[in-house]
Amino acid sequence: MQLSSSLFQCPVLISKFNVHSKIKDQLLTLINESPNQTINNKTDNILKTDFYIDEYRDYKKFLLPHLTPHMKEVFRPLQISGFELGNMWFQQYIKDNTHDWHIHGNCHWTNVYFVELADANEKTQINNIYNNEQINYNATEGDIITFPSFLYHRSPNIQSDNRKTIISFNLNFL
Fold it and tell me: Does the global pTM surpass 0.90?
C-alpha cells in the first residue's frame, strides 16, 4: 500500500493560554511542592517529573478550572462537542537535559503547556511521520501546543542556563 502525504495534513494547534501570566507563579510554587523524581537513563535526562507518581497533585486542581474552558475554545473550530482529560504531568529541564523521541498511547491528542520557556529553540520538536522532517511552528512561553498523539516528539537537549518547565496532558474526544 502506498500512502500519499498530500492527502493528510497533521494539525499542530498553537494556542495562547491567556491566564498564563496570572497563574504562572502560583503554578510553579505548586509544582515545586509536588512529589517528583529525576529521570536519567540512556535516552532521557529530566531534572524533575511526576510522570511515575500516582497521586493527585495540587497543581492539577489549581490548573484544571483554567485549562478546561481554554481547551473547549481550542477545539471549537473542529466542532468537537466534548473531550476528557487523561494523564497530566510536569517536567522540568535544565542545561544538558533532554527527553527522547516518543509518542503518547491510548489518547487522541497530546498537549504541551510551556510554563517556562525562555528560549523558543528549546520548545518541543515534532516529527512529520511522512518525511521524517521536523514540523515547524512558532510557540513561546504561555502557549499550549496540541497535536495528534501518534506524532513522534521530544524535548531537545537544553543548551541555555534557563530552566524549562512544561505540563503535558492527554485528551480524548468524546
Answer: yes
